[in-house]
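seq as requested:
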Amino acid sequence: MRTSTRRWTAETGWVFSEAHLGEPALVLYFGAPSLMDGDATPVRELVAEFPNAVVCGCSTAGEILADRVHDESVVAALVWFESARVRAVAEPITKHAESMAVGRRVATLLNASDLRHVLILSEGLTVNGTALVKGFSDVLAPGVTISGGLAGDGSHFKKTLVGLGDCVKSDQIVAVGFYGDGLVVSSGSRGGWEGFGPRRLITRSAGNTLFELDGMPALGLYKKYLGERAVGLPATGLLFPLELSQNLSNHHGLIRTILGVDEDAESLTFAGDMPEGWYVRLMKATAEQLMDGAALASNAAVNSNPNGSLVIMVSCVGRRLVLGQRTDEELESVMDAQPDEAKAVGFYSYGEICHRRGGDASELHNQTMTITILSEHP
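struct tokens:
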């Protein structure tokens, strides 16, 4: 397996120098929303350059190339396999309620006896990530791993885009299946956040929409905690995610951040499920805690795949907002654990898909650094 990475800017365009390797099997890109909407010149140029490759990607809240984050650019990984193969499927999704059915439908299209991994790139706003991943898991064999993320739109939360080939649009998901016995895939995920304050019971919710906590309107209660920051919702909610736990004794809950608010219904919409009868509490983190979490995620992934060729990072936009000028330090902490020859791309997202800490099943995360490492053995 060979991997090469490139970055497009308005000044440089694409520069390719691997003609001797032939056409790659996979071109995976992540780009600024402004460069993917409408004309989408960088994507069209990739498709024209590599007409026989699987070319796919999504919009971001920051493009990751190795140990640096960029804006107003497109980053891409070109991948040549020795024996593994890839194929991709695109499917529309226009509302949260469709998520599980879409996941099942796409998983069925990708399923095969030699399927080893599925990378999901999803619309970031009109999806219930929990239900989407469950749809995949219901169909795929237990040994097939799943990772990926929800497309981003900076801190705007207006429109996200996902592309396969020259079709780049909102309200769709793209899933890439990786096939072959020689493929080695590992992953890791960590947050670095800590809970504080009282746990509150979810007394009314529907899927990924939260209406009441302890019998009180969820939006009003959350605004009370945010104080003057509430004016900037939903973006300011990224600074104070919620820890979701099934019971009061659970010490490693899932992290959820807000995608939207409904003033009339006094509700909050999240990227994943908020089940009634579960508990939530506020979370906070320092830059150091987030960087430590990223390092732990990287170590967890590299321990079972020390000769990785391609590293795919999906981290949450909320982490970037907390880290600010220190965002590159999170990426450096990831790459410090990787072999020197490994190439890395990724994006800051509206949700991350990876297995849960201490478990094998994949789930939708928020505010988490997730690492997927791909390699091939002879």
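The chain has a mean pLDDT of 93.
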